[in-house]
Backbone:
DNA sequence: TGACATACCTATCGTCGCAAGGCATAGGCC
DNA sequence: GGCCTATGCCTTGCGACGATAGGTATGTCA
């Protein structure tokens, strides 16, 4: 059983979405590519991951939406609410703490 | 919806189990506590996580087992096979790569 | 016309950590 | 003896979530 492509990615889409939307509002389709580009093509989360996540975060009050039609195509822009900012702060603190702890274990000398 | 306690932990039990067993063979019950101690009580994976994982890794040929009875209690000691070492190398490289990428995105300046 | 990018959405599946149990022996305490 | 805790193994069922694979519609360009 080879490790799946999603190993270690639990929670990462939400972390990145909140991080990127904190800089500027974006719409879903744009976010999918923004994540890919921001990660140097190392991370790709398809629309089937991003759209449900956006809906969920909106329901939770972490994101606010604004609808706009451009060139005959309708876009849904998402921006981070104060609650969303708090959520991101908590998530990123958690992420930093965990990765630091794991790094310590990985690098620990024998019998530590 | 508050983030669950398992956020960011996908694949981590396997990574840590292989890392700790690389130092010395251990049995399941011992591993559960070793992970907790090695992480300074920051990470706890209960037996319901560790035992199935050990069985899986053994089936995959990543771990070898040795049975021993001590003080009337039977223990199953696990050690890492060459295939398990390879697997760990791949996993930890993947982990380092991903965390580095994510850290970059998190710390990126606006409009990066 | 046909192909492709844009832009939204959903349903279903598989994996995996988690909670909650069960079973058995050893040892300490009252 | 009766009871609780620690030790040591195990399994079942649930829920969350990333992955896959679709579906719909408009604009652009060859």
Residues:
């Amino acid at each position: 059983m080879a490790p799946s492509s999603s190993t270690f990615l639990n929670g990462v889409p939400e972390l990145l979405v909140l991080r990127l939307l904190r800089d500027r509002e974006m719409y879903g389709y744009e976010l999918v590519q923004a994540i890919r580009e921001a990660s140097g093509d190392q991370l790709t989360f398809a629309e089937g991951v991003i759209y449900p996540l956006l809906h969920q975060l909106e329901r939770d009050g972490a994101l606010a939406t604004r609808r706009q039609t451009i060139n005959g195509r309708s876009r849904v822009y998402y921006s981070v609410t104060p609650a969303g900012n708090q959520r991101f702060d908590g998530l990123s603190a958690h992420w930093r703490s965990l990765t630091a702890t794991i790094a310590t274990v990985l690098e620990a000398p024998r019998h530590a």
User: Anything to note?
Assistant: Residues 64 and 79 of chain A are 5 Å apart (CA to CA). The mean pLDDT of chain A is 95.
